[in-house]
Amino acid sequence: MEIELSDLQEQRRLKAEELREQGFDPYPTRAKRTHTTAEALAGFERAEAAGSETGGETITLAGRVVSRRHMGKTLFSHIRDGHGELQLYIRKDEIGEEAYNRALKLFDLGDWVQASGETFRTKTGEVSLRTADLTILSKALNAPPEKWHGLQDKEIRYRQRYADLIANEEVRRVFATRSKIVSAIRRFFDGLDYIEVETPTLQPLYGGAAARPFTTHHNALDQIFYLRIADELYLKRLIVGGFERVYEICKDFRNEGVDRNHSPEFTMLEFYEAFADYTTMMDRVESMVTFAAQEALGSTSFVWQGHEIDLANPKPWPRITLREAILEWSGVDYVQYPDQESLQAAARAAGAKIETGTVWPRIVDEMLKQFVRPNLIQPTFLIDYPVELSPLAKRKPDDPTHVERFQPYIGGGEIGNSFTELNDPMDQLDRFLEQMKDRDAGDEEAMPLDTDFVNALMYGMPPTGGVGIGIDRLTMLLTDQSTIRDVILFPAMRNLPSGTGPLSFGLPDDDDDDAGESDDE
Question: Which pLDDT tens digit goes with each residue over 257-271?
Answer without folding.
Answer: 889 989 999 999 999
